[in-house]
Automatic annotation (TrEMBL), chain A:
<dbReference type="GO" id="GO:0016887">
    <property type="term" value="F:ATP hydrolysis activity"/>
</dbReference>
<keyword id="KW-0547">Nucleotide-binding</keyword>
<dbReference type="GO" id="GO:0005524">
    <property type="term" value="F:ATP binding"/>
</dbReference>
<dbReference type="InterPro" id="IPR010230">
    <property type="entry name" value="FeS-cluster_ATPase_SufC"/>
</dbReference>
<dbReference type="InterPro" id="IPR003593">
    <property type="entry name" value="AAA+_ATPase"/>
</dbReference>
<feature type="domain" description="ABC transporter">
    <location>
        <begin position="42"/>
        <end position="288"/>
    </location>
</feature>
<protein>
    <recommendedName>
        <fullName>ABC transporter domain-containing protein</fullName>
    </recommendedName>
</protein>
<dbReference type="InterPro" id="IPR017871">
    <property type="entry name" value="ABC_transporter-like_CS"/>
</dbReference>
<dbReference type="InterPro" id="IPR027417">
    <property type="entry name" value="P-loop_NTPase"/>
</dbReference>
TrEMBL record, chain B:
<protein>
    <recommendedName>
        <fullName>SUF system FeS cluster assembly SufBD core domain-containing protein</fullName>
    </recommendedName>
</protein>
<dbReference type="InterPro" id="IPR037284">
    <property type="entry name" value="SUF_FeS_clus_asmbl_SufBD_sf"/>
</dbReference>
<dbReference type="Pfam" id="PF01458">
    <property type="entry name" value="SUFBD_core"/>
</dbReference>
<feature type="domain" description="SUF system FeS cluster assembly SufBD core">
    <location>
        <begin position="192"/>
        <end position="420"/>
    </location>
</feature>
<dbReference type="InterPro" id="IPR000825">
    <property type="entry name" value="SUF_FeS_clus_asmbl_SufBD_core"/>
</dbReference>
<dbReference type="GO" id="GO:0016226">
    <property type="term" value="P:iron-sulfur cluster assembly"/>
</dbReference>
<dbReference type="InterPro" id="IPR011542">
    <property type="entry name" value="SUF_FeS_clus_asmbl_SufD"/>
</dbReference>
<dbReference type="InterPro" id="IPR055346">
    <property type="entry name" value="Fe-S_cluster_assembly_SufBD"/>
</dbReference>
Length: 290, 450
């Protein structure tokens, strides 16, 4: 599948953009997709990774397959390796892969530079997005957007040409236009940072969006905004992998698969019903069940 | 060593160099004017002699300054690395060159059209000034204005400045357009031309001015600019100072900026120095009354085998001063170096002073070096002072953030370097200067983009 990206800015219709739909409809879409096609998008096989600096292995053999159109959730105790897994997938230099394989859209993901992974359609929202003083949000977005257009063989656009496109995306995540002039994440509140990650997802599109605790630190309204935005951004062909500790976002985004990570491995996989067991009995019991 | 300087002693003018020192080498063409006993550095003596030869022969209102400077010059040896102010700054590059002082043409030109300037205001060479009272005022000021830590280079300039660019803004006058001074060094292939441009800014009570000092050069010649800038900021007056140094990477650039601030005045300096093989800025600010505001922002960039050095002193002797100093340096070459010695003195009577100092360095190559010595000396007790120093490479986390959004690492690096420097660049009040400086830095960081 090609990158989900509008081919012209700002006049044409963004293929990603759909009119707002209630979450229920999206759920239906997904069910349909899952049944009709099981094209693998991401295949992670026995992935092992260590921290470069300390040589400590964190991922001890992760196995996970995400097919086109599926919505997955990873839960698990603090420190079990969820964020590390996400960061290894996007190529964070703090970690070194020591074993296993990752195939994304049929290609060896581990051989790609981080920017190539992004351009190939992999997006991750960071659990703690870093501040970039001195670089404004709009400058950053325009640059990232143009990198994507370049990859697609489209002409790059000036900041003015991008303006209405960016405004549209801001509306989608319900952010005030002032956020464009502010420096990337600088002085943003926890919730504003999360929204800003979703804004980037809205601008860039993705075949697979990994959302690392996008719901942490969000108030009820913000969570609804973010979930609505995600539902509008992703078409039934796109996939979603969210990392979370809370049930609320699961109810809004309705995952088809729920995994529990424990000590650097996927310890258990089930569906939404497993979340109830986790909430009732805790991770210890759930991950030890086989 | 060879100093050129063959001009004959002008008849009818008595020598400025007092005849109280010994001339150790006994050069055959000694002109018999200097036979004495005080010991000094023969190199400096020879340099002094060639400086004197280079001066115009007409009498000048700078005479008092020359007299005062000659004494200091002759008693000061060439600085060695054993002395604290030059511990990290190697001057041998100058010393090993054949120095040729040049006083003509005077290297400062005014880019602001004079027709735009309101009347009693004066901008121009001191030699063309006709008001006897102002000449007198300037002459008085000059002979007594040497900053506390004045060094050999201050004296060289005071002794050898052929003229002085005076900017005089009378009481209550506000200048809307900036005064833009451009410096053009002269050069030759076999010698290192030394020029000594000097600027004096006098702002009377309540006056307001933005001055731009632009030392640029787009060629790669070897020369030595030894500049001095003095400002006297009157009560409640406001001076904004933009200083851009992008001279040749084969040049030496030594600069003094000495500022005196009367009560309730404001001095705001923004500096970006990217040029010269050896760049040294001595910045001295003296508070003359209470309630002053001092805001210093400087960015030094070494992209080659270069040293960029800022030595600053801010002396607060009166109550309720407010000062902020931000110094940033980027060293992007394994043989590049940055030096910062920033001294802030909050003395006994400077109660309720609010002084902040921050220095941040970015080292982009494994062997790049930086020597920073921020220091606050606080004697007054009721003050609010803060300082900090940080040295780092670019943040991996930040680079990854760009990459994770599809922006390649080189572009990300360049952007982050700009973002680091941008904090200073953004303080230039003129957008045209901000743009020029950004372009310069882009070209320096990525020569292929030129
Ligand atoms: N760069 C790093 N340096 C040092 N330790 C690290 C690093 N990255 C991860 N770790 C350690 O690896 C373990 C897994 O961390 P990770 O962030 O992946 O946990 P997590 O499952 O995302 O936890 P949480 O639910 O709290 O977000 C933790 O013990 C963490 O301290
Ligand atoms: Mg985490």
């Amino acid at each position: 599948m090609a990158l989900s990206l509008p081919t012209q800015c700002p006049h044409t219709v963004n293929p990603l953009r759909r009119s707002p739909k209630p979450a229920l409809l999206r759920r239906l879409n997904h069910r349909v997709c899952v049944v009709s096609a099981a094209t693998p998008l991401l295949q992670v096989n026995d992935l092992k990774a260590k921290i470069v600096e300390s040589n400590v292995e964190i991922l001890h053999g992760v196995n996970l397959t995400v097919n086109q159109g599926e919505v997955h959730a990873i839960m698990g105790k603090n420190g079990s390796g969820k964020s590390t897994f996400a960061k290894v997938l996007v190529g964070h230099p703090d970690y070194e892969v020591t074993g296993g394989s990752v195939v994304f859209k049929g290609e060896n993901l581990l051989e790609m530079e981080p920017e190539e992974r992004s351009l190939a359609g992999l997006f991750m929202s960071f659990q703690s997005p870093v501040e970039i003083p001195g670089v404004s949000n709009d400058e950053f977005l325009v640059m990232a957007y143009n990198a994507r257009r370049k990859k697609l063989g489209l002409p790059e656009l000036g900041p003015l040409e991008c303006f209405s496109y960016l405004m549209e995306k801001l509306q989608l995540v319900n952010m005030k236009p002032d956020f464009l002039n502010r420096n990337v994440n600088e002085g943003f509140s926890g919730g504003e940072r999360k929204r800003n990650e979703i804004l980037q997802l809205a601008v860039l599109g993705a075949d697979l969006a990994i959302l690392d605790e996008i719901d942490s630190g969000l108030d009820v309204d913000a969570l609804r905004d973010v979930a609505n935005a995600v539902n509008q951004i992703l078409t039934p062909e796109n996939s979603l992998l969210m990392i979370t500790h809370y049930r609320r976002i699961l109810d809004l985004l309705n995952p088809t698969h729920v995994h529990v990570m424990d000590k650097g491995k996927i310890a258990r996989t089930g569906d939404l019903s497993m979340v109830e067991a986790i909430e009732a009995e805790g991770y210890e019991t759930v991950s030890s069940l086989t | 060593m060879s100093l050129s300087g063959t001009a004959l002693w002008p008849l009818g003018l008595c020598p400025l160099i007092p005849c109280s020192w010994s001339y150790g080498r006994g050069r055959g063409r000694g002109r018999g004017r200097c036979r004495g006993s005080a010991s000094s550095d023969p190199y400096v003596l020879e340099l002094a002699e060639s400086l004197e030869d280079s001066l115009p022969s007409s009498p000048s209102p700078l005479r008092n300054l020359r007299m005062a400077s000659s004494e200091a010059l002759l008693s000061t040896p060439w600085p060695s690395r054993r002395e604290e102010p030059f511990r990290f700054t190697d001057l041998s590059f100058i010393r090993n060159s054949r120095i040729h002082p040049v006083s003509h043409p005077y290297p400062v030109t005014l880019l602001t059209p004079l027709s735009d300037l309101p009347h009693p205001l004066y901008v121009g060479p001191l030699s063309a000034l006709s008001s006897p009272s102002l000449i007198h005022q300037v002459s008085q000021f000059l002979s007594s204005s040497a900053p506390h830590h004045a060094d050999l280079f201050w004296s060289i300039n005071g002794f050898a400045a052929p003229d002085l660019t005076l900017v005089y803004v009378p009481q209550g006058t506000h200048l809307d357009n900036p005064i833009h001074l451009a410096y053009h060094p002269s050069h030759a292939s076999d010698t290192m031309h030394l020029s000594n441009p000097r600027v004096l800014v006098i702002l009377e009570k309540g006056a307001r001015l933005h001055i731009i000092e632009d030392f640029s050069a787009n060629h790669n010649h070897s020369y030595w600019t030894n500049a001095a800038f003095e400002a006297l900021i009157g009560e409640a007056a406001h001076l904004t100072h933009s200083y851009i140094q992008s001279q040749s990477l084969s040049a030496a650039h030594i600069k003094w900026t000495s500022v005196r601030q009367e009560s309730s005045s404001t001095y705001q300096l923004t500096e970006v120095s990217t040029g010269a093989k050896l760049g040294r800025h001595n910045l001295h600010i003296q508070q003359l009354g209470p309630d002053t505001v001092t805001d210093l922002s400087t960015l030094h960039l070494s992209v080659g085998d270069q040293t960029q050095d800022l030595h600053s002193t801010l002396v607060l002797d009166h109550p309720r001063g407010y000062s902020r100093q931000l110094h940033k340096c980027i060293v992007a070459h394994s043989q590049g170096q940055a030096v910062f010695d920033g001294n802030i003195q909050v003395n006994r009577y400077a109660q309720q002073t609010d002084a902040g100092q921050l220095t941040r360095s970015l080292l982009l190559q494994p062997r790049a070096t930086v020597n920073v010595k921020p220091n606050l000396q606080i004697v007054a007790h009721d003050v609010k002072c803060s300082h900090g120093a940080a040295i780092s490479d670019l943040e991996e986390n930040q680079l990854l953030y760009f990459q994770a959004r599809g922006i390649d690492k080189n572009t990300a690096r360049r952007l982050l370097i700009f973002a680091f420097g941008g904090e200073v660049i953004d303080k230039f009040p003129c957008s045209s200067i901000r743009d020029t400086v950004r372009t310069q830095i882009t070209n320096l960081l990525d020569p292929s983009s030129v």
